[in-house]
Design brief:
Blueprint lengths: L1 H21 L1 H9 L2 E3 L2 E3 L9 H4 L19 H4 L23 H18 E4 L28 E4 L9
Antiparallel strand pairs: 1-2, 3-4
Helix pairs in contact: 1-5
């Protein structure tokens, strides 16, 4: 089960990175997108620290926020139907056979891809042209790309500030 969940995420990341490197205009567009959160424009290179403690204890969103109540996350309490009745979840199946790792899979793709694109520019190995990148598929449980993706990361925004 773990292998199945991580294989699909790895395959999706591989395809997304290959498409970004193959299309430098789109890569640049994604990296240069302005960010606005709740009406506030976030300047480029701003480091944001999310106060998860406060979010998870905000009485505006949670009844009895300081109490341990795991049942609050049951389907009936979320207001969102993940059982396949919303078409945006169709890639994860539907009904009783829906993917049990849907949330894990989404997080397993979105966060690494965002980090890859935010912190690095990506180049193909020396001498290789974007048109030469093999975008054909191979047969298997997931639609993997034929061959491995080799790209060169160029630091754009360091994860940590420089040591002084």
């Amino acid at each position: 089960m773990l292998g199945g969940g991580s294989e699909t995420s790895a395959t999706t990341l591989d395809w997304a990175m290959a498409e970004m490197v193959k299309n430098p205009r789109i890569l640049k567009k994604v990296q240069d997108e302005k960010c606005e959160i709740n009406g506030y424009e976030i300047p480029v290179d701003t480091k944001i620290i999310v106060n998860a403690w406060a979010i998870n204890r905000d009485p505006k969103y949670w009844r009895n926020p300081d109490c341990f109540e795991p049942e609050r996350f049951l389907d009936d309490n979320l207001g969102v139907d993940y059982k396949g009745n919303h078409f945006e979840y169709i890639p994860f199946g539907a009904g009783r056979r829906i993917c049990p790792g849907m949330a894990f899979g989404m997080a397993n793709v979105e966060l690494p891809l965002a980090m890859f694109l935010y912190h690095f520019d990506w180049k193909l190995p020396a001498g290789m042209k974007h048109e030469e990148l093999d975008m054909s598929e191979s047969f298997g449980a997931t639609a993997r790309r034929n061959g491995d993706l080799f790209v060169v990361p160029v630091i754009k925004r360091p994860l940590l500030p420089p040591v002084k």
